[in-house]
Write a structure and sequence with these properties.
Blueprint lengths: L28 E13 L4 E12 L6 E4 L4 E7 L2 E2 L1 E5 L2 E5 L10 E9 L10 E4 L2 E4 L21 E9 L3 E4 L2 E7 L4 E7 L11 E4 L1 E7 L5 E7 L3 H8 L2 H12 L9 E3 L12 E2 L5 E3 L8 H13 L8 E2 L5 H18 L11 H10 L1 H8 L17 H14 L1 H14 L4 E2 L1 H12 L4 H9 L27 H6 L17 E4 L2 E4 L6
Parallel strand pairs: 1-11, 18-20, 21-22
Antiparallel strand pairs: 1-2, 2-8, 3-7, 4-5, 4-8, 6-7, 9-10, 11-14, 12-15, 13-14, 16-17, 19-20, 23-24
Bound molecules: zinc ion.
């Protein structure tokens, strides 16, 4: 954001002030619903988009802003009437012909074109030879559609995808109809039953085959698989029903109308900088990863599945609350691994052994990546938010016992189902359910610069901190380290690619799961 002294900002606001990405999102309204249409043009490999955003102002607005980057906007209407618009930084400023009033919804329609291959400072597009997929987390959904791009503003979504015949357009949620246009193009519509954060939107066009199967208690499952890979990926996809049954035993009923896996329709190992992404009801994967044997992928598949509860149903209110997503996803992913008898990359075969190992690295990680609940844009996806978060949950479980811990988890998921939660919300629930004030205990674990004592394990020790040298936080340690590394092994073994967010390189950190 560039501001000039004496000249007011062009928009109504400069973002919601998120601790990690302060410019994301906008004040003055909430987005209630998105009706999105994506028309993939095979000849130009571009996408013609129409976004209809239903907004509810909380004050009188002479204009308002949406997050938008890299979108060529052709027209904007507000409640059907043409509106003036301008772009600056990563904002689309809309000026209707009259002010919007608080408490009255308005419909903003934005017609635009986007090029999934366009070079941008950061992007949510995953270009593929036949189309595209979307990976908007954390801060790039607004390169795919104009939106109030902050996880705290969840909304209803209906998505229509038009693709040339022979290709398939898919999106989150349930199928809601197909329209053959008779000109070689087909539009497929999808509706999400529950609210969704913008970062969790999935839209894809590719040479896909849909594989339907049935999960626990009749839950319909839908995998969207590159047709050429459908046979070789079937063993991995067939694991989902069993994984769902295990997850439901720990976390309660699956929160959405369907679940499925979408290995992207691309052979490019660098198509995106991580292995899997929990786009709601349809998890995006690198196809090659899912060709491996179950013992090598099962814990990661559990990680992504657990995000349906922690991340998608209960979404972080701020990006600094990311450890709630990733810590829980890793905690249950690791629990699943060791229950199934799959040794990890260090040879550990029990959760206790792995946690003791991690505990020893605690001070180094706090030194290199900051406290678990105080990330920056540069180190947001470091392992400190992943297995570092899992270590906090392990400490809590050791302190209160497994039964109370399970009650804390279920209560937290129930209280914030389909909404948002903060770190403070989790701490409050832990205290209320356990009947003891856990604020000090958890604050030390979440925000302390030194690793607190581990309850029940007075013999566990923390290794001394080694200087990191010239390497910056996060990304530097990740590329060089592997599961057999030394005290700096909090990187992303197996997923060292970097995503860009807010202009800062970040790296997903769950590769050591
Ligand atoms: Zn994750």
């Amino acid at each position: 954001m560039l501001l000039f002294a004496g000249v007011p900002s062009a928009g109504a606001a400069d973002g919601l002030g998120d601790p990690v990405f302060p410019a994301l999102g906008n004040t003055g309204y909430r987005a209630l619903a998105y009706d999105l249409a994506f028309d993939y043009r095979a000849e130009s490999r571009t996408v013609d988009g129409t976004a209809v955003v239903t907004v509810l102002p909380d004050r009188t607005l002479a204009r308002l802003e949406l997050d938008a980057l890299g979108l060529t906007v052709r027209a904007v209407r507000v409640d059907g009437r043409p509106a003036a618009f301008a772009t600056h930084d990563e904002k689309l400023t809309v000026t209707p012909d009259g002010p919007l009033r608080p408490g009255t919804t308005s419909e903003l329609t934005v017609e635009y074109t986007a090029d999934p291959r366009a070079p941008l400072p950061h992007t949510g597009w995953v270009p593929t030879p036949n189309g595209f997929a979307v990976a908007g987390q954390p801060a790039s959904a607004h390169t795919v559609f104009p939106c109030n791009d902050h996880p705290s503003d969840k909304a209803r979504f209906a998505i229509a995808v038009t693709a040339p015949d022979g290709l398939l357009g898919v999106a989150n949620g349930d199928s809601a109809g197909t329209e053959h246009h008779g000109d070689g193009r087909t539009t497929r519509r999808y509706v999400s039953r529950e609210p969704m954060a913008t970062e969790l939107v999935q839209v894809s066009v590719g040479d896909y085959t849909v594989r339907e199967r049935t999960g626990p208690h009749g839950l319909p499952l839908r995998d969207v698989v590159p047709t050429a890979r459908a046979a070789e990926l079937e063993p991995a996809l067939a694991l989902t029903p069993g994984q769902l049954a295990w997850a439901e035993e720990h976390l309660g009923p699956f929160p959405f109308e369907t679940y499925g896996i979408m290995p992207a329709d691309t052979d490019d190992p660098d198509a995106f900088g991580f292995t899997g992404l929990e786009t709601q009801t349809l998890t995006l994967y690198k196809p090659d990863f899912l060709r491996r044997p179950e013992a090598e992928i099962g814990s990661h598949m559990m990680h992504e599945l657990v995000h349906s509860w922690f991340g998608d149903s209960v979404t972080p209110a701020r990006w600094s609350d990311l450890w709630i997503n990733e810590g829980h996803a890793d905690f249950y992913g690791l629990m699943y691994r060791y229950e199934r008898g799959w040794p990890d990359g260090w040879g550990h075969t029990t959760l206790v052994d792995r946690m003791r190992h991690l505990y020893g690295l605690g001070d180094q990680w706090r030194h290199d990546s900051g406290p678990v609940a105080a990330p920056t844009a540069a180190n947001l996806f470091d392992s400190q938010r992943y297995t570092g978060g899992a270590l906090v949950l392990f400490a809590l479980r050791e302190k209160v016992g497994a039964d109370l811990f399970d009650r804390i988890e279920r209560t937290f998921l129930g209280e914030h189902r389909y909404g948002n939660a903060t770190t403070e919300d989790y701490v409050r629930t832990a205290s209320e359910v356990s009947g003891e004030d856990l604020g000090g205990f958890l604050d030390d674990w979440l925000y302390g610069l030194r690793t607190p004592p581990m309850p029940g394990h007075p013999d566990w020790t923390v290794e001394p901190v080694e200087p990191v040298g010239a390497a910056p936080f996060g990304t530097a340690a990740s590329g060089a380290s592997g599961p057999h590394g030394t005290s700096r092994t909090h990187g992303t073994a197996g997923s060292s690619g970097a995503a860009r967010a807010g202009g800062v390189a970040v790296t997903r950190g769950s590769g050591t799961l």
